[in-house]
Design a protein that fits this description.
The chain has 382 residues and is α/β, with parallel strands linked by helices. It is built from 15 helices and seven strands. The protein has two domains: 262 residues, Metal-dependent hydrolases (TIM Barrel), CATH 3.20.20.140; 93 residues, no CATH class. It is 44% helix and 9% strand. The protein is elongated, with a radius of gyration of 27 Å.
Length: 382
């Protein structure tokens, strides 16, 4: 264990360049740096979006680093920012639903998300939360709000604090620690990261100037005071929080609650009762046989029968029958409403798609390669 990895720590207060005109590093850069620094895990929390989580997840798989997708909730009603991380797949659904609800509000301006505290109270179950209180404001306002959140979310809530490097960090951290102790809420450390390395600070200044539509020379106090908002090593964080090592340990407990991974997401097709009462595979086989008789009224050619059998066998091995039945239902509904609907692309390579009416040109007429549509080696839905 080297000096960088001597202290277990996980960083959850990270904004990437998907926090538009605020974060100055790509998700991949942040993940690579976290791995180099020996982090036990890392979480990405961009402002009211999860747009960058896939890139971070892909890089984390390469680096073999535990990665947790999340979001920094920025409210329009004065509520302090809250880091929200789904604990499981259902919690991920709640987070996405909450963001969608906020983005669909009619009064939203372009690029704005009108997220309200009521959205979190409605959809915040199955998430681990860390509030970043306004330590320069009135303590009473913080206490009232955080008490309300604690009543609603219980042990899922933490109080997160970051140095602001303005010369009063010891007082700032002590203030947050006292508030956490008073409310019986764990204190959690973060560096409120905006970039992976200190040399990105000039770029972050430019992003701030663009966001404010003001020359860099005139932005003044809106710029960060220094280049300290970079991803710091666990050892550096331990030094900053040396009077409160429990705040670093809390990041590990926070991480332990998060079992959700983007790897958990996969296609799920409706498993509804079929017209015949048969299972999905048997129903697809029935539709294919009946459709083939309609498509080839003079008799189904032997080669077509062979291809039907071959395709059905592959569909069964890959468990894709529900996929075909779902598309079949969509096409059937569209045509019942007079909506033009026809399968395109490599779907034309499938005799099953032709027989059940998804496509209109028989693949036996164009000599297409079915494996372009579905391949056992590719092992992904068409």
């Amino acid at each position: 264990m080297n000096a960088l990895t001597a202290i277990p720590y996980a960083e959850f207060g990270i904004q990437s360049n998907f926090s538009f005109l605020r974060g100055a590093s790509k998700p991949e850069e942040l993940v690579v740096t976290a791995k180099f620094y020996g982090f036990s895990s890392i979480g990405l929390a961009d402002r009211n979006t999860v747009a960058g989580v896939v890139r971070a997840w892909q890089q984390a798989r390469v680096e073999k680093l535990a990665y947790h997708p999340g979001c920094r909730l920025v409210f329009c009603d004065g509520t302090p920012d809250i880091l929200a991380y789904p604990r499981d797949r259902k919690g991920w659904g709640h987070l996405c639903r909450m963001l969608t609800q906020a983005n669909l509000r009619d009064e939203n301006e372009k690029g704005a998300t009108l997220l309200e505290l009521s959205d979190l109270l409605e959809w915040g179950d199955l998430m681990s939360l860390a509030i970043l209180p306004n330590l320069s404001g009135g303590a009473e306002d913080n206490l009232t709000l955080i008490s309300r959140l604690k009543d609603r979310f219980g042990a899922a809530l933490r109080l997160a604090v970051a140095p602001d490097y303005g010369g009063n960090d010891r007082f700032r951290i002590e203030q947050a620690a006292a508030m956490a102790q008073h409310l019986h809420i764990p204190l959690m450390a973060t560096n409120d990261v905006l970039y992976h390395a200190a040399d990105r600070r000039p770029l972050q200044d430019v992003l701030t100037a663009i966001r404010l539509n003001t020359p860099v020379s005139e932005v003044g106090l809106e710029l960060t005071a220094n280049a300290e908002r970079h991803l710091k090593t666990p050892l550096e964080m331990a030094r900053l929080f040396r009077r409160h090592p429990e705040a670093l340990a809390e990041t590990l407990r926070f991480a332990d609650e998060l079992t959700f991974s983007l790897s958990d997401l996969e296609y799920n097709y409706p498993d509804e009762p079929t017209e015949s009462g048969l299972g999905p595979q048997a129903e697809l086989e029935r539709l294919a046989r009946e459709g083939a008789a309609v498509r080839y009224p003079a008799g189904v050619p032997e080669e077509v029968l062979r291809r039907i059998g071959s395709e059905l066998a592959l569909i069964e091995r890959l468990n894709y029958a529900r996929y075909f039945l779902t598309v079949y239902d969509i096409v059937k509904f569209a045509r019942s409403k007079g909506i033009l609907c026809q399968g395109r692309g490599s779907a034309a390579n499938s005799v099953i798609c032709f027989c059940i009416g998804i496509t209109e040109v028989g693949p036996d007429r164009i000599d297409a390669l079915f494996e372009r549509f579905i391949s056992e080696k590719r092992n992904e839905p068409p």
